[in-house]
């Protein structure tokens, strides 16, 4: 069973959430009766193999996917019952993503990719992630780690209360991945956002305050890390 945080302090929550794709023989139960909550400033790792439900959880928390059943809440208010436009507005109001691939706009410079979010502080954010000298570089001119740092700066441009990271080091070598992860946690400490990371890497999972292990769309174990 997943530990739930008190309703008054939960920033984001899932209550008995299930997600089903397809019908009949094509039916996939991506998530089954999932209960979860996270408070601002907390870090949680969703750990499991591909197909375990990690990305689906990020999608329902961020309002990208409406659950088949159950309730998703954002700042205590139902998110899953909103229409597509209202869910998009909720994301703009405090939820940001860092994907496994950086998902940068290929013909935009690093500066333009960050400014595209509407941030007035793109240069400062790129400086914050160590890329002040790469403002005019296109994604193709950046290394994988630099691209991911641009993606992190872009996410910070949304001033999130909740940052959702889907395998943020998955395409990086171990040394670059460690440095990117160090950066994410340093920024979390600085800005105080909640961090939910989906990963299959036990080393990445061990960095979080709380680790939830998933298999076949269900919680099979949980560990709260010692302070």
Give the topology.
Elements: E1 12-21, E2 28-38, E3 43-47, H1 54-61, E4 69-74, E5 77-78, H2 84-92, E6 95-98, H3 110-115, H4 122-128, H5 144-156, E7 162-166, H6 174-191, E8 194-199, H7 202-205, E9 210-215, E10 218-224
Parallel strand pairs: 3-8, 3-9, 6-7, 7-8
Antiparallel strand pairs: 1-2, 1-4, 4-5, 9-10
Q: Could you give the count of β-strands?
A: 10
Dominant shape: globular
CATH class category label of the largest domain:
Alpha Beta
Number of contiguous helices: 7
* Oligomer state of the chains in this structure: single chain
Sheet with the most strands: spatial strand order: 6-7-8-3-9-10
Here the CATH topology of the largest domain equals: Rossmann fold
Radius of gyration (CA) equals 17 Å
Distance between the termini: 21 Å
SSE pattern, N- to C-terminal? EEEHEEHEHHHEHEHEE
CATH architecture of the largest domain: 3-Layer(aba) Sandwich
Beta-strand share of residues:
25-35%
> Unreliable runs, pLDDT <50, ≥5 residues?
1-8
Q: Which bin fits the share of residues in helices?
A: 25-40%
Structural class: alpha/beta
What is the number of independent domains?
2
Characterise this structure.
This protein has 227 residues and is of the alpha/beta class. The chain has 2 domains: 1-94 and 161-170 and 185-227, Rossmann fold (3-Layer(aba) Sandwich), CATH 3.40.50; 103-159, no CATH class. It has 7 helices and 10 strands. The protein has helices spanning 54-61, 84-92, 110-115, 122-128, 144-156, 174-191, 202-205; strands at 12-21, 28-38, 43-47, 69-74, 77-78, 95-98, 162-166, 194-199, 210-215, 218-224. The chain is globular and about 50 Å long. Mean pLDDT is 91; it is low at 1-8.
């Amino acid at each position: 069973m997943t530990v739930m945080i008190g309703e008054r302090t939960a920033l984001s929550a899932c209550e008995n959430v299930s997600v089903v794709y397809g019908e009949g023989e094509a039916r996939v139960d991506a998530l089954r009766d999932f209960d979860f909550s996270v408070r601002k400033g907390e870090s949680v790792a969703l750990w499991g193999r591909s197909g375990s439900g990690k990305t689906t959880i990020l999608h329902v928390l961020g309002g990208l996917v409406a659950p088949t059943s159950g309730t998703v809440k954002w700042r205590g208010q139902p998110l899953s019952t909103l229409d597509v436009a209202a869910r998009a507005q909720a994301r703009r109001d405090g939820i940001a993503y860092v994907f496994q691939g950086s998902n940068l706009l290929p013909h935009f410079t690093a500066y333009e990719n960050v400014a595209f979010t509407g941030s007035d502080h793109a240069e400062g954010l790129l400086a914050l992630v160590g890329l002040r000298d790469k403002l005019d570089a296109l994604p193709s001119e950046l290394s994988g780690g630099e691209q991911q740092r641009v993606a992190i700066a872009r996410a910070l441009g949304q001033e999130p209360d909740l940052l959702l990271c889907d395998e943020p080091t998955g395409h990086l070598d171990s040394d670059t991945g460690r440095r990117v992860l160090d950066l994410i946690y340093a920024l979390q400490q600085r800005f105080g956002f909640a961090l939910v990371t989906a990963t299959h890497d036990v080393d990445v999972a061990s960095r979080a305050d709380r680790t939830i292990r998933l298999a076949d769309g269900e919680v099979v174990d949980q560990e709260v890390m010692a302070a």
